[in-house]
Amino acid sequence: MKNLSNRLWVLCLFLSVVSHATAQKSWISLFDGSTLNGWKVGENPQTFSVEDGAIKVAGPRSHLYYMGEVSNHEFKNFELKARVKTTKGSNSGIYFHTRYQEKGWPIHGYEVQINNTHGDYIKTGSLYEVVDVREVFVKDEEWFTLHIIVKGNHVIVKINDTVVVDYTQPTNPLRVTEERQTRVIKPGTFAIQGHDPKSVVYLKDIQVKLLKD
Q1: What angle do CA 12, 15, 16 make, to 5 degrees?
Q2: How far is the C-alpha of 97 from the C-alpha of 20, rounded, in Å?
Q3: Which of 35, 177, 183, 190 could be disulfide-bonded to 66 (CB atoms 3.0-4.6 Å)?
Q4: 36-60 per-position pLDDT tens digit
Q5: 183 vs 128: CA distance, rounded Å
Q6: pLDDT tens-digit series, residues 93-132
Q7: Whole-number Å distance between alpha carbons of 30 and 72
């Protein structure tokens, strides 16, 4: 009986290790920490660089699009996590379900705002101009986790472990201006925003988990 108990304990330990390893493998890195391989920028490429293992955003308006091999850079249902650090007065954002553009503000998909102390009242975690968050949950110069979950028409945004947006896109979403008509859920890629020359933001540990339909 003792031998059987020992074997069962070993089996349970093995299954636990396998389960943990599987869970760890389900997160896929989109940024290697040293280069911008797999990413593509249009206008003002000098806005993006790599510094101390993070993507540094500092310069004129620009957008860095993920165009790599993971899911052939087209994501539908997913979880995205990134470690983010803002500086005083900075503004940035992470787009999802978007498409590569050579220039201009992305017209496709949603923007999750990054802004703790910039003058714009729409703060970090907002689903920009769809669900606007006015409360500030984190401080400049401190790393925090921005976590975006999209499943079907449901979007959740977390700052660290706090849910700041819980949004379900209706069948016919109201988009007041013509330029916002394509701000809807539709498979696409991710993009990091360079907002203006005074906005300096850092992002690292950018990972995605693909979810089943």
Answers
A1: 85
A2: 29
A3: 190
A4: 999 999 999 999 999 999 999 999 9
A5: 10
A6: 999 999 999 999 999 999 999 999 999 999 999 999 999 9
A7: 12
Is residue 169 a contact partner of residue 185, using CB atoms and an 8 Å limit? Answer: yes
* The residue type at 204: K
Q: Within the chain, what is the greatest distance between any pair of CA atoms?
A: 73
Task: Burial-class residue 94 by CB neighbours within 10 Å (0-12, 13-18, 19+).
Answer: buried
Q: Among 70-79, 142-151, 163-172, 177-186, which stretch is predicted with the lowest mean pLDDT?
A: 177-186
Q: Which domains does the chain have, with CATH numbers?
A: 29-210 (2.60.120.560)
Sequence-distant (≥ 6) Cβ neighbours of residue 80 within 8 angstroms: 94, 96, 147, 148, 149, 190, 206, 207, 208, 209
* pTM of the model as a whole: 0.87
* pLDDT above 50: residue 75: yes
Question: Environment class of residue 140 by beta-carbon count within 10 Å: exposed (0-12), middle (13-18) or buried (19+)?
Answer: middle
Closest by CA position to 204, among listed 31, 28, 26: 31
- Residue found under tokens 């360079």: 194
